[in-house]
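Narrative summary of target 7.
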Amino acid sequence: MKIARAYVRLSSIPENSPESSVSLASIGSCEIRMLRGPEVDLDGVQLFWLELFDHNMKMSVDSCCCHRLKDAVPIFNDFSSQADGLNKPGGPDR
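Modeled conformation, tokenized:
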């Protein structure tokens, strides 16, 4: 449901708005967010991206394009696990 609600919020943001993403979760210094993709699929559905962003390193750690909401669930779970690992003492670059 969290992913579906984020998609609805993202879809309601005007295309020319400087706000181009919706936060799905914050895990320590990491954030999982949804971004609108510039592409549209064959059915005319706007594609979206999930991104794992590390605020300490100030960079995207991972991202993936999604065609359907159900495709985003395993990616969200993977990004959550990656964020847990990044936030552990002695994790990458910590």
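Residues 2-87 form one domain.
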